[in-house]
Each structure stands twice: as C-alpha cells, then as structure tokens.
Amino acid sequence: MKKRVLFLFWIVIIAISSCTSDNSKLNEEEMATESAALSDLGKTLVVPWNVELNDSTQMMEIKRNPEASMFNLTPSDMVDAINLKYPQIKLEWMKQEGKRAIVKIEDANYLTRESGTEGAMAYLAEATFSLTEFKEIEEVEFIFQEGDHAQPGIYTRERFSNFN
Fold this sequence. Notes:
Blueprint: H1 2-18, H2 28-39, E1 49-53, E2 60-64, H3 75-85, E3 91-97, E4 100-105, H4 109-114, H5 116-131, E5 139-143, E6 153-155
Parallel strand pairs: 4-5
Antiparallel strand pairs: 1-2, 3-4, 5-6
Helix pairs in contact: 3-5
C-alpha cells in the first residue's frame, strides 16, 4: 500500500512538473513540503471526503472516502492532500485562529472561472469537510479573489447541507 501511494505521488509530481514552465519552478518552501511528505511515509495524503454527482437524482453528494486515513496528519498535511487531488488550485495553509482554519488561494482563476459553479462548490465542500475533520477546526475561511463561480468567505459543513 505504501509503495502504491508513493508511486501515485510521484506520478502526480511528474505530471505537474511537465505542465509547468520555467517561470513557475517550485520555491524552496514548496520543495521542503514535498520532501517532508515523501520522508514521512506513515501519512496517507488522500482527501477524506469526495463529492459525487448522483446520476439518478442529479444532486451532488458528499461521501467519506474509505481509502483516506487521518493517522498522523496535521491540517497542513490535509492542505497538501487537497493540492494533490486538485493541482490546478494551489491552496495555502495560513494559520488557525480558535476553531477557524484560514487558507488562501493566491491564483483562484481555475476555481472561480474555469471549473464551473458545481466544480467550485465541490472543491469548497471537499476542502471544508476535510479540514473540519480535525476536531479543533469547525470552520474554514477561504481567502481568494471572487469570481464567477466561487466567492471567498467562511465555510462550514452546514453550508453544504443541500448535498445529500
């Protein structure tokens, strides 16, 4: 299982690297984050919640991912897991204030303009549910420039109560 996760992680890294230009090389902090993720193989960087479209009801549903493990993860690790699943959206862990996680998306163009309303809501739901999986986090404040399909603000699980 660990070899499989490591193999998948390398495939994602190679795919991301091949799609970037010389102007977007990883900075030292990003490289350190990736190295730390590789060195700590006891962690499984898989998002614990997935949004799916129910074919029969045409409603979005959020479901627990049975492949995910919260063992030995920090909220910052969860941000890494979200970034592995959604490499087009670079979520950054900023800090935690009380029961609120504060995260930032510097370039939210893909989220707010290219993913569509359902895609943006699915992303925000998965990120919110995944980060609030930690008992010390009850809400997530997303900081990014508002666009056509998503707006910044404070998100809780209740905000997605229309998901079945």
